[in-house]
Amino acid sequence: MNTPDALRPIPGDAESVFDAGARFTILAASLEEARNTLSTKAGAAVDALDGPRAERFAEAAGTVNTRLEATATQLDIAALALNNYGTVLAAAQAAIDDLAAEWEDKQQLVADARGSDDPDAVADARSRQSTLEADGDTARSELGTAAERAASTLDEATDILIPGAGGMTPAAILEESLGSWAGIVLDGRSPGDFYTTFKEWSDPALAAKSLVGGASQLGVAASIVRNWNEPHRAQQLLRQAENLEKAKLTAVWRVTGDAGDFRYLQQLSWSSDVIDQARRGAEAADAAMASRVSRLSQAAMLTSKFAKFTGVLGIASGVYDVFKPPHSGWRGGLDQLAGAAAAGGGAALILATAGLVPAVGVIAPAAVAALAVAGAWTVGNLIYDHWPSINSALDDANDWVEDRKVEALVGVSGWTTDRWNDFEESNWNPGNWF
Amino acid sequence: MSGGNPEALRVAQEGMSGTATEIRGVAEDVSAALRACAGAFGDDRVEAALERFGAAYGGELLAGGLSVETLGKAAVTNADLLDAVTGGDR
Question: Where is the region Disordered (chain A) (predicted)?
């Protein structure tokens, strides 16, 4: 028997659709719970902060909170769409099954009536079969309408976000992740904005990074601070690289073949390259530090008092110096100028030394200049006061810098070495003052 | 620059770290739910739309997890900064 197309079984498993809807509902509830926890903890953090930093933290937490809440809502909407579609699917499948069974009965009746003297019975059966087929078409049409509605609902929810990695392009995820590694959120801001941001989110460990990259003349400070922080930062970067790999996997999870996919894939490719670069850099830094820690530890011991001071040097102290210069009189005035320059220059140099932000090539020279001037002044004072105790560690520091073999860093270091030589001969050098 | 409570910030960071893990877990569960019902719709349009939905919001959740981690790190950063500036003498 050839069952007509209208009465063929409808594919699908309504129970699985219901199960998926139920899981989505549970996930929405879990996400809401996580969101509430975040609100509580972020609120506690805001309470523990003062001034602009508290405001920025609250703003960032609020943004995340809103996004999570919106996602929970969309998960609920998806669950509703699935349940509605599952209901219509189950009903259509049951209806088609019943209609098909009756159609088969009529077909058997027609077969049995052939050759009999009851042509009306055959005609009635044929007529009933036509009606059954029409009912089957109606059931399929209703299911098609339900499917269209469910797909439309899901697409509308999806269209709220940029297709792909959840409202964030791979580049945006990369940027945010690197921003978190750096202790700041880059978010496409200008160098001027970086300055403001960095004042509020400054990190002594990363101030050290700026010293390392931007001022090889600070050889001792650089080596000591690296000795402090490099392994930790390398581990952080490795973890971030892993996070980025996860993000990439999620992003490539489904590429649907839409018109925008080409550009999307380009972004993915770019992100992948940067991720690999970041990972290689982190692994190299990790390995390099493991072999150098013991050698540098002696230098750290020799100058531990100086190291503690330089731990808050750079950006943190730059900002601090603006408000509370360590010297009085005319030296205090220069402290303030140098502090402001260090804060701005250091923020940009973090990007330069990371080597991961394209725009950094434009701003790095100015940043190096700012930091060199500020560093020359700030560390000039320090070196003048502490020269005997730090001189013995200088060779180790320079060796470390030379061995690093990071192209961007070496380029910056070369430039700043020249500036250091200029500084040594100039009136900026405290050693020439007396 | 020196105001604030480093210890409270670190406690908040621990909570945010756990929250970030939970959010990533939800993202993974979204993927699992989609895989479990793949092919169950009997309609390519619904299946394709749900896949797009899952990819988008799975990524959104992942990004959310990263953002929460960022907040947590910022809390620790600020705590460290406060300690550094004040020498831990609060």
Answer: 112-141
Residues of B in contact with A179 (CB under 8 A): 70
Q: What is the pLDDT of residues B3-61, one digit of tens each?
A: 578 888 889 888 988 999 999 889 888 888 888 888 888 888 998 888 888 877 887 78
User: Which of B50, B82, B89 is the best residue to mutate to test the A interface, defined by the most A CB atoms within 10 Å of its own CB?
Assistant: B50
User: Domain containing A105 — which CATH number?
Assistant: 1.20.1260.20
Residue B88 lies in a domain: no
Residue A129 has a pLDDT of 92
Whether chain A has a CB inside 8 Å of the CB on B84: the answer is yes
- Assess whether A268 and A404 both reside in one domain: yes
| Contact present, A376 and A217 (Cβ < 8 Å) | yes
Tell me which chain A residue has its CA closest to the CA of residue B42: A12
The model's pTM is: 0.50
pLDDT tens, position by position, A25-40? 999 999 999 999 999 9
A166 closest CB neighbour out of B9, B63, B68: B63
Tokens representing A307?
């190291």
Q: Most confidently modeled of A26-40, A308-322, A410-424?
A: A26-40
Distance between CA A97 and CA A9 in Å, rounded? 7
Q: Does B76 touch chain A (CB under 8 A)?
A: no
Give the separation between CA A142 and CA A147, rounded to whole angstroms: 9
Q: How far apart are CA A415 and CA A46, in angstroms?
A: 41
| ipTM, 2 dp | 0.90
Residues of chain B contacting residue A254, judged by C-beta atoms under 8 Å apart: 51-52, 54-55
Cα–Cα distance measured from residue A402 to residue A195, given in angstroms and rounded to the nearest whole number: 29
* Total domains, chain A: 2
Nearest-by-Cβ selection for B46 from A150, A158, A163 = A150
